[in-house]
TrEMBL record:
It comes from Photobacterium ganghwense. Belongs to the helicase family. UvrD subfamily. Keywords: ATP-binding, DNA damage, DNA repair, DNA replication, DNA-binding, Helicase, Hydrolase, Isomerase, Nucleotide-binding. It comes from the Bacteria. Residues 287-564 form the UvrD-like helicase C-terminal domain. One of its GO terms (biological process) is recombinational repair. One of its GO terms (molecular function) is DNA binding. PROSITE patterns: UVRD_HELICASE_ATP_BIND (PS51198), UVRD_HELICASE_CTER (PS51217). The gene is uvrD. Its EC number is 5.6.2.4. It catalyses: Couples ATP hydrolysis with the unwinding of duplex DNA by translocating in the 3'-5' direction; ATP + H2O = ADP + phosphate + H(+). This is DNA helicase II. Residues 8-286 form the UvrD-like helicase ATP-binding domain. ATP binds at A29, G30, A31, G32, S33, G34, K35, T36.
């Protein structure tokens, strides 16, 4: 094997890591400094120079996609066979191990993996079976409790509740849940890790087998490992094993999920003669992007401390765009991507990063309108998300009681005690009578075929849907949607549940209200009710499907899922105080620092060009919110930023929702101004009219000024001049 081939394209520090004598190493380095590249070359080095068999190597990555990429890159370097090498995520590798030793692990051969939705459903059943009130003891919180304990390596018998009655209850649920899983041969995500860890701990011969086998373990993104993963690694790595971990404390972004950045320090303590190697040269980003990111992260106190430099060009400044609302923001981003494409750039080289999933909707709609293919990385399209489908199902039933799919979806969501048996009775009756499920239900109730609890629950559901329609018939679509989300109990159901995911679901439901508020019935659908028109719009958008794998497509993802990736052009959107950092995090220093690290991760994805955008007004849950630009923007050294001026053209004014368009236009005609018009103010300078309310002497206009932000002004006194 030619040594130079393996060290080509590496700097001195990277070479030092790649060609280091066998031993334990920590490679600690900032974003884009080539940590992942070092791991890839190290594996090739181990095989090519140290004559390590692929069978003796295990490499751990954060996502399956990263694992596949790593394999591809090693293959390119080696042209040799990698068969026998273990390469995957912690979960994937533990699964593999449990499959190989299912008997020792006490599992049936065909054990199933329980995904988080399955887990929730099972928990809901068990909580009910324990006669606990679901409102007080939500399944989501049980899952959070149980997964957290498992991540700490704790079984029910290990837990001391200190007579805390609340924890005692959760512990009972944990017990029941574990029994149910064990009986059915089901394993949830946290269980994969814990059980595999226990197997290694308990079974000397299995432990020795793996310790004898794996002479080399390599771990990427180590800063985001949790306790059980760390403990698992320690058992896998025998006395003759060589472990290389790479990570960046500044990119630790999963603390909220139990990841422990302290594991980096623990590695140095626990692994024999572990040495640190620091990489400081960045190869990914331009000077401006890098210095901006360095400047931002310097605001954190909890740091191991390192600095990054680049030999690359300074590149363009970071463009900060102040949009007047989220539609304008989406339009701006799509416009920039269009320019990029016109200059020959590939769509796949552009990425939109946002803090929370709900933000994708406006962006998705702008992309669809522009006819640009896009892909949502590590997530689902807006209209395909569970909670959105739930809410849409209620709306569909309101519009059409005979929609069986919607009926099935929500007849017992939120749970109202309708079991599978009752549903089967309804299905059969519907089939026999050639009726819809709704019709069959009504008939079964009338004929008193169904009785007791089932009948009561079903009747309540029928009445609920009827009431939802009666009570909201007269309301504008967005209020109707809002009421339906509340009165159906969906919102409360998700509010009961704890955790980041539940929060995201509520945000998505709020976003659905915004979507209905922004929705304008298209001309071809003017004969439909706004509700029906919206429902077909949603169905069509959901049906668009992801861009297929080979199609050139814009990449959309949360900042969390962008970890480890890079793109020539990156847009970070919604960088507003309250959105990012999210309002839930600004109270606690620790959480705020984690948000800042997330911002650092986002910025350092960009190779050539970074745009940061924020909206001065964002419509959330049918309400207008005025946000300040994020503190993170202020924390970036000014010399790396340029403000992009607002364009004179406003193609679609934000309709206020309080006035019909005709009314607005009439009122406007009296004032001599129009929406989207450019105006000059003696003090605030140039601006664009974006909204209007009231009439006569009370009339006010909302103007987005170029430098002075957005202001409401009384038209009569404002001394505005048309431009
Ligand atoms: P992150 O912290 O975001 O995971 P990283 O430290 O893993 O980043 P890599 O993804 O390995 O960084 O490398 C960043 C970019 O720099 C990649 O495009 C990689 O190919 C390139 N790169 C790394 N080292 C060198 C080098 N010595 N010469 C040229 N390019 C390099
Ligand atoms: Mg990396």
């Amino acid at each position: 094997m030619d040594v130079s081939l393996l060290l080509d394209g590496l700097n001195d520090k990277q070479r030092e890591a790649v060609a280091a004598p066998l031993g334990n190493y920590l490679v600690l380095a900032g974003a884009g400094s080539g940590k992942t590249r070092v791991l890839v070359h190290r594996i090739a080095w181990l095989m090519g120079i140290e004559q390590a068999s692929p069978y003796s190597i295990m490499s751990v990555t954060f996502t399956n996609k990263a694992a596949a990429e790593m394999r591809g890159r090693i293959n390119d370097l080696m042209h040799g066979s990698l068969s026998g090498m273990w390469n995957g995520t912690f979960h994937g590798l533990c699964h593999r191990m449990l499959r190989a030793h299912y008997l020792d692990a006490g599992l049936p051969e065909d054990f199933n993996i329980l995904d988080s939705d399955d887990q929730m459903r099972l928990l809901r059943r068990l909580i009910k079976a324990q006669n606990l009130d679901e409102k007080q003891w939500p399944a989501r919180q049980a899952a959070w409790y149980i997964n957290g304990k498992k991540d700490e390596g704790l079984r029910p018998q290990h837990i001391d509740t200190f007579n805390d009655p609340i924890e005692q209850t959760w512990l009972r649920v944990y017990h029941a849940y574990q029994e149910a899983c064990d009986r059915a041969g089901m394993v949830d995500f946290a269980e994969l890790l814990l059980r595999s860890f226990e197997l290694l701990q308990r079974s000397k011969h299995i432990r020795e087998h793996y310790q004898a086998r794996f002479k080399h373990i390599l771990v990427d993104e180590f800063q985001d490992t949790n306790n059980i993963q760390f403990a698992w690694l320690r058992l896998m790595a025998g006395p003759d094993c060589h472990v290389m971990i790479v990570g960046d404390d500044d990119q630790s972004i999963y603390g909220w999920r139990g990841a422990k950045v302290e594991n980096i320090q623990r590695f140095l303590n626990d692994f024999k003669d572990a040495k640190s190697i620091f990489l400081e040269q960045n190869y990914r980003s331009t000077g401006n992007i890098l210095k901006a990111a360095n400047g931002l992260i310097a605001n954190n106190n909890e740091r191991m401390g390192k600095n990054l430099w680049t030999e690359g060009t300074e590149g363009e400044l970071i463009s900060v765009y102040s949009a007047y609302n989220e539609l304008d923001e989406a339009r701006f981003v799509v416009g920039k991507i269009r320019e990029w494409q016109d200059q020959g750039g590939a769509l796949a080289d552009t990425a939109m990063l946002y803090r929370s999933n709900a933000q994708s909707r406006v962006l998705e709609e702008a992309l669809i309108q522009a006819g640009m293919p896009y892909r949502i990385y590590g997530g689902m399209r807006f209209f395909e998300r569970q909670e959105i489908k739930d809410a849409l199902s209620y709306l569909r039933l309101i519009a059409n009681r005979h929609d069986d799919a919607s009926f099935e979806r929500v007849v017992n969501t939120p749970a109202r005690g309708l079991g599978e048996r009752t549903l089967e009775t309804i299905r059969l009756a519907a089939r026999d009578r050639g009726a819809t499920m709704w019709q069959a239900s009504v008939a079964l109730l009338e004929e008193q075929v169904l009785a007791g609890r089932a009948a009561n629950s079903l009747r309540r559901f029928i009445e609920l849907v009827n009431a939802l329609e009666d009570d909201t018939r007269e309301l504008p679509l967005f209020q109707q949607t809002d009421e339906v989300i509340r009165n159906s109990g969906l919102r409360a159901m998700y509010e009961q549940e704890k955790g980041e995911k539940a929060q995201a679901r509520i945000e998505n439901l709020e976003e659905l209200v915004t979507a209905t508020r922004q929705f304008e019935v298209p001309e071809e659908a003017e004969d439909m009710s706004p509700l029906s028109a919206f429902l077909s719009h949603a169905a069509l958008e959901a049906g668009e499907g992801q861009a297929d794998d080979f199609e050139d497509a814009v990449q959309l993802m949360t900042m969390h899922s962008a970890k480890g990736l890079e793109f020539p052009m990156v847009f970070m959107v919604g960088v507003e105080e309250g959105m990012f950092p999210s309002s839930r995090t600004t109270e606690e220093v620790g959480r705020l620092e984690e948000e800042r690290r997330l911002c650092y991760v986002g910025m350092t994805r960009a190779m050539q060009k970074l745009y940061i955008t924020y909206a001065e007004m964002r419509r959330l849950y049918g309400k207008d919110n005025y946000h300040k630009p994020s503190r993170f923007i202020r924390e970036i050294p000014e010399e790396h930023i340029e403000e992009v001026r607002m364009k004179a053209k406003v193609s679609r004014p934000a309709s206020s929702g309080r006035f019909s368009q005709t009314q607005v236009n009439e009122n406007f005609n009296q004032t001599g101004f129009s929406l989207g018009q450019r105006v000059l103010h003696p003090k605030f300078g140039e601006g664009t009219i974006i909204n209007f309310e009231g009439s006569g002497a009370q009339s006010r206009v909302q103007v987005a000024f170029n430098g002075e932000g957005i202001k409401w002004l009384v038209t009569q006194f404002a001394k505005l001049e048309p431009m």
